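Entry 14. Ran structure prediction on the chain below.
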Amino acid sequence: MAGGICVTLVLLLSVIPAGSRKSWRRRGQQLVPNSRERTEAGGESFPLDFTAVEGNMDNFMTQIKNLAQSLYPCSAQRLDEEMKLHLLSNHSITCNDGSPAGYYLKESKGSRRWLVFLEGGWYCISRENCDLRYDTMRRLMSSKGWPATKKASGILSTQPEENPHWWNANMVFIPYCSSDVWSGASPKTEKSDYAFMGSLIIQEVVRELLGKGLDTAKVLLLAGSSAGGTGVLLNVDMVAEQLEELGYTGIQVRGLSDSGWFLDNQQYRRTDCTDIITCAPTEAIQRGIRYWNGVVPERCKQQFKEGEEWNCFFGYKIYPTLRSPVFVVQWLFDEAQLTVDNVHLSGQPVQENQWNYIQNLGRELRNTLKDVGASFAPACLSHEVITRK
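Output, structure tokens:
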């Protein structure tokens, strides 16, 4: 039925010359363009004979409007197209297990805006930790099981109702398969069982996208949630510098960090560091950056002594060093932050000391955002938001 409506509308509109589909004024039995429109068209105008609908023009135009609105189901079929998987041509840039990294792409022909999204999903900081992660969350360490297409939501949606500002941009989703907060630069070798190449994956994806239309882009928005949100802070300037070095100085690079603004605070209860959940935030990142051979932006690195580059993984420490504009979205009571702080809310009544700790956490996080130029920080208990429907 929708297809029939589309054909009907196309046939109906085809009787109207392209140069005359603007606004008309009535003259007897005809509707003709005004003089200004004739001048702008720069050519001959052809009066249209609407004798058949004389005296009922308002009703006729209402029908045209209704038919145009009915056209939406036809276009929605195209808008619903899923993002397609592209494995990197450079097979030396890999996931943890050595399988090729890649990205999902939904092109929007004619758009000069690109949204590149970094997926989140925690990380691993030791051989034993990574082995367990590989057994239980393999898609976050390997591309072997990735589907050929992916349907996106939230800021990656192609539906105007769901995503009014970015629905018609070129959409890129980079799956997280490096377990290194998008910071690693270490290939898999005979001595190491895993590769950690998160930072290199981003650079290689950007390089490939230049051949798919990014070279003519006006804006590139690097966005990400959770570990991907931290990845934005670590890589947004690197992407800008990469494009500048390749000669694409006209592309404006922006960042959107969702739920990646973590604090290096004291845990509610101190525990032995056996995995990423029990480790204090600072200890986990210190171990991780050594294990991944992680890299951080040079401007941030220069702010700290050698061996203390781990500080750059915390938003309030790296943000002042960034050149690219970044919008920060961060729940004041972030569930992931509370997890690493050993505050486990399991449905039981919250004790007074827990409540005081949680409230203080919110105040601390809010204070770290006071110098951020653009932020959205609801006083809610949650984690991630920009890819939700």
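The chain is about 30% helix and 15% strand. Will compare against last week's run tomorrow.
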